[in-house]
Amino acid sequence: MRRNPLKRLVVLGFALASIMIAGSQTSSDAQTDPGGKAVSYSNSNEIPESARPNDATISLYEARRRNFIRRRASQNRMYKVDPKGNAVPFEERLTTSSNRIERELSQGFILSYLYYADGFLKYNGTSPNGRFRKDINDETVFFTHSTGKSIVSFIMAHAICEGFVTSIDEIIDWPMMRDTLYQGQVLRDLLDMNAGDQHTVNRRANRVMGAERHHRDMGVDTIAALLKGTERRGSQVFYNNVLSDIIANYIAFRAGPNYDALMRLVFQDKIRIEHPVFYEKHARTLTDGKRSPFYGLPETQASYSFFMTRLDFLRFAVALMKDYQEQTCVGNYLREAQASAKSWYKFAPNEDNSQLWLHRYARKYGAQFYFDFQGMTNRNILATEGFNGQNIMIDMDNGRIVVTNSAATGWDQRTFILDVIKNGQLPD
Predict the structure, then answer these.
(1) CB 116 within 8 A of CB 84
(2) Distance CA 49, CA 403 (A)
């Protein structure tokens, strides 16, 4: 069949236009139906990682998250640490600009971008006012998601340094967990997520064996009952959400009546939060139809699911970096975690779409942190990663920090985080 030359030219024109567009915005970060109506992907509070939501959809899910926080507060399922009034404002030297970040904040999925270096806040950006139904500002509360795991580890470091926990190698002796696989394990193995518990949760690691509901919708005493009789299987690293909540509750158990004071020490005196910080508490539930001996105790309700403002994310990162640099007791915990970190089984920098996840570039994982990043070997780099881009990356040697809060996964972590930390320059 004879080809139509005009048709071939039109097709070629479309192809060239696509290439030009791709040069300014990759296919991964393009919105689906920009300017269209809001889409509800599910009843969840979070946009699926595969979605590329438009602004109306982002507004919808931001409202859902605010409603979720209010609902948990009304259910008495929110732990709160109030600020002490000692927050120190960041000194700004906003001499650094980036058209690429401005475009992402205006059209993409990053809602807040903070770049801190040499003791100064050098870039401080949010999505422009009017873009969403409710503006993003310094009082907007973000879910930490799995960055909250790293916050729990930071709290654990303080629990050790305050003497509530003997060391990172403490042998767990916990009456509530006495008949489970965690009893008798070394705390380090739980922190490094090689506790041999991959057979006790579902594939997404948010439901415990035998349970149909989310693990946070039951008390940890009920979870302990479900785990009764379990034994450790293997020692490979297995990243999971339930274990981080178990660690959070072990802190509550070991701190005992001093738990609230410990939390104030971390958030008020060390991080110096400006706004209240919350975490979602586990529900109080019956165990085998009755109240367990541990029903309602703090060691049954703690979690890593924190809610914080953007600048308090940065305050956490700065506090952590200073501890590491000054080799305090907490800093030595972080250094030990780095030195003994395990090989990270999801390291895959060259796979398709790897740029969408920070953890794909980490070779090691230890004490709920990522270490040893591709292209930065022999540098002291530490990172956290939360669902849909609630991320922190810290260069301990050069004093650089990037903090992102994001609505969706579809943006390039290499460009906006890894390369910035590596080179000390924002993208053009």
Answers:
(1) no
(2) 19
